[in-house]
Amino acid sequence: MAGGPRRQYNNPIIRWIEYRLPIVSTMEATLGRDMPTPRNLNYWWSMGMILTVALAIQILTGIFLAMHYVPTAEGAFDSVERIMRDVNNGWMIRYMHANGASLFFAAVYIHIMRGLYYGSYKAPRELLWILGVLLLFIMMATAFIGYVLPWGQMSFWGATVITNLFSAIPLIGETLTTWIWGGFAVDNPTLNRFFSLHYLLPFVIAGITVLHIWALHVHGPSNPLGISPKGKHDTLPYHPYYTTKYLTVFGITLIIFAFFVFYEPLYLNHPDSFKPADPLSTPSHIVPEWYFLPFYAILRAIPDKLGGVIMFIASVAILFLVPFLDTSKVRSARFRPIYKQFYWIFIADVLLLGWCGSQPAGGIALLLARLGTVYYFAHFLLVMPLVGWFEKPRAIPEGISKPVIPKERAGFTAETSPEAAE
Ligand code: HEM
Question: What is the pLDDT of residue 6?
């Protein structure tokens, strides 16, 4: 039999399928049905699950929206209004989709911050991380083009500002922009191709997510201590321990999501989105969605258009290099007293950039955006390599189940500890 011994299944339907196409056993072998999971995962390890749920929500609600949406410059705005007023539960589907994008980004940012704090990107999980950054890039592209589809003022002008950036590329810039637009301005062909791509890209995200989770299952998840499990006493089966633990996060997330969908659906929206696109009237202040604000601040912080575009792309692309920029041998920031401080300064810097991105470009906001941009890149290019070299990490516990506190002070030895007695 090709592919080694297969598992025996009691369910006759699965047995029938397995004999002809060993899909269930292959999935179990790669996705690890009984994968032993470190016993000390905290709640920050639940975001991957929330992301998967968010992707499912976006795809499902998106499919139903697409049934009623009209992807033409004449029909788009009205078709969205029709979804809101005439389609059964259309308002709910649309609000779920719009707020679902925010949920998706909130979860992905927490997921990335978790990775940066606990050094999840370190060997042997570099490729897992790189696939994650690729997911982030595609998520951003998908969200950006999705925002254009309702064809309101913000859609139109957001698309105009961002697509115009390509024209800064030397030699090919103008031609490339015309090619993206499908004409000489953002217009019907642009909207049409954006719709086509907006439908396609979530499935690309789903495909890369499978690779991401596959890579995760090769070496298993890392954990808050950043040390590998040393045996059975360091691990737990994922189910029922983590399924139940993370069910609470799932519940709380759904409550927050429902609050936004049913009580504050437009909280994150912009009033100009209620005006149909008008190429002859530019809104006084063009702002992107909240999840793009730090990157938007970096884009505008650079006085030169091409320079801004490069830094804008570099601000996300630099994440690809993180596994190679961090020189520390220690994975988790728990044992890295200096990196830990820099980590929080970095978070504050990103929040500051976010605020700057929401303000008109000028005055103090512009100055802070410039300083924030310098610090943003310095964190990756200077802090990560240098702190890794010079920092003296704290003592690392021998194993996940062994207490770190010295035996004398703890009052019990690792062998007589309550954990060892389990
Ligand atoms: C569509 C977006 C994404 C989905 C659906 C997704 C899904 C998941 C899932 C299910 C896990 C395992 C559970 C967990 O650790 O939370 C995971 C782990 C991980 N993800 Fe993602 N992810 C996404 C984006 C990203 C991004 C943008 C990054 C980094 C830039 C990233 C980096 C990682 C890393 C390093 C781990 C392993 C963490 C560890 O074990 O310490 N992921 N992801």
Answer: 64
Same domain, 262 and 113: yes
- Pocket residues for ligand 1 (CB within 6 Å)? 45, 47-49, 51-52, 55, 108, 111-112, 115, 118, 120-121, 125, 128-129, 132-133, 135-136, 139, 205, 209, 212-213, 216, 221-222, 319
Residue 206 domain boundaries: 45-216+241-286
419 lies in some domain? no
Instruction: Quote the tokens at residue 70.
Output: 């009209």
* pLDDT one-digit tens code per residue, 34-65: 677 999 999 999 999 999 999 999 999 999 99
Q: How far is the CA of 212 from the centre of ligand 1 (A)?
A: 7
Ligand 1 mean position to 103 CA, how many Å?
15
Residue to substitute in 111, 131, 225, 322 for testing ligand 1 pocket (most ligand atoms within 8 angstroms of CB): 111
Residue pair 11/373 in contact (Cβ under 8 Å)? The answer is no
Give the C-alpha separation, 214 to 206, whole Å: 12
**Is residue 200 in a domain?**
yes
Torsion (CA) 156, 161, 166, 171 in degrees, nearest 10:
110
CATH number at residue 306: 1.10.287.980
Q: Which of 70, 61, 59 is nearest to 209 (CA)?
A: 59
The best mutation among 135, 318, 324, 380 to test binding of ligand 1, ranked by most ligand atoms within 8 Å of the C-beta, falls on 135
Q: How many CB atoms lie within 10 A of CB 104?
A: 22
Query: Could you give the count of Cα atoms lying within 13 Å of 72 in the half-sphere of its Cβ?
Result: 3
pTM over 0.85: yes
CA nearest ligand 1 atom 40, residue: 221
282 and 371 housed in the same domain: no
Which residue's alpha carbon is nearest to atom 42 within ligand 1? 132
Domain assignment present for 137? yes
The residue from 286, 312, 340 where one domain ends is 286
pLDDT digits (tens, 9 = 90+) for 96-127: 999 999 999 999 999 999 999 999 999 999 99
